[in-house]
Task: inverse folding
C-alpha cells in the first residue's frame, strides 16, 4: 500500500502479524473525556509478501491495545484511563484513500470490541457510557431515527439516559456517513431501548423523543414517549 500524501507520521505499532505506521493522530474531547482518531497503514505482514488484511474485532482489539500503550502526542496529563474511544481509518490500496472510522470503545483503560463484528458500535462517555447508536434509519429526506442500545461493561442505568444529550452528541462525534446524514436532517428521533438492539432490529422496553434541529442543536418538539 502506498503511504498517504502530506500526512504527519506518528508511532509504529505491532498488531498480530502486522506492523502499522500511524498518521495524523487527532484528539477531541466530549463530556470531559477524550477520543483519539488515527490513520493506519500496514508496512509489513510477517512471513508474507501480501499487504491485504481484513478488519475484524481481533485486529481492532489488538491494534487498540497497542496504541493505548504508546499514545501519539497526547494532550498534557491524558492517560489511557481518560479515553472513551479510539477510531481507526485504514488506508485502501487505490491512491492511499482512507476508510471511514472503525471505532473501538475504551472503558477503564481497556479496549472493547467483538470478534465476529465487521462494523463496530460508536460509543460515548460520561452520562451516556455503555449506550451506543446501534441502529439508524432515514425516515424521510430530512428525518432520521437513531436507536441506542446497551454496549460495553460499564453502563449508565436506562432510567438515567438523557434523550436530548443522546441527540446532541451525535452532532459532536459521529462517523463520516452519519455526519453526512445529519447535515441534511431537520428532525431527529431518539429511541433508547432497555432490551436487545442489533443492526437489524430491537426488542424490549423503550423511550423515545422527537427533536427539531437548528444549527446542530437538538430542540424537543414533543414529550418523552415510553413503550
Result:
Amino acid at each position: 500500500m502506498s503511504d498517504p500524501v502530506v500526512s504527519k507520521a506518528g508511532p509504529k505499532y505491532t498488531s498480530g502479524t502486522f506492523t502499522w505506521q500511524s498518521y495524523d493522530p487527532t484528539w477531541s474531547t466530549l463530556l470531559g473525556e477524550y477520543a483519539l482518531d488515527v490513520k493506519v497503514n500496514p508496512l509489513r505482514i510477517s512471513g508474507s509478501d501480501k499487504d491485504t488484511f481484513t478488519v475484524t474485532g481481533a485486529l481492532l482489539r489488538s491494534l487498540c491495545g497497542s496504541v493505548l500503550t504508546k499514545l501519539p502526542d497526547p494532550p498534557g496529563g491524558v492517560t489511557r484511563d481518560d479515553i472513551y474511544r479510539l477510531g481507526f481509518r485504514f488506508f485502501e490500496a487505490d491512491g492511499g484513500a482512507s476508510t471511514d472510522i472503525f471505532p473501538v470503545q475504551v472503558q477503564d483503560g481497556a479496549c472493547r470490541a467483538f470478534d465476529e463484528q465487521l462494523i463496530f458500535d460508536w460509543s460515548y462517555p460520561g452520562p451516556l457510557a455503555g449506550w451506543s447508536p446501534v441502529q439508524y434509519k432515514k425516515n424521510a429526506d430530512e428525518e432520521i431515527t437513531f436507536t441506542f442500545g446497551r454496549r460495553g461493561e460499564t453502563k449508565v442505568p436506562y432510567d438515567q439516559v438523557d434523550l436530548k444529550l443522546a441527540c446532541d452528541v451525535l452532532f459532536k462525534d459521529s462517523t463520516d456517513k452519519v455526519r453526512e446524514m445529519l447535515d441534511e436532517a431537520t428532525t431527529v428521533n431518539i429511541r433508547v431501548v432497555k432490551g436487545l438492539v442489533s443492526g437489524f432490529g430491537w426488542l424490549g422496553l423503550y423511550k423515545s423523543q422527537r427533536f427539531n434541529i437548528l444549527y446542530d442543536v437538538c430542540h424537543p418538539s414533543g414529550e418523552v414517549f415510553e413503550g
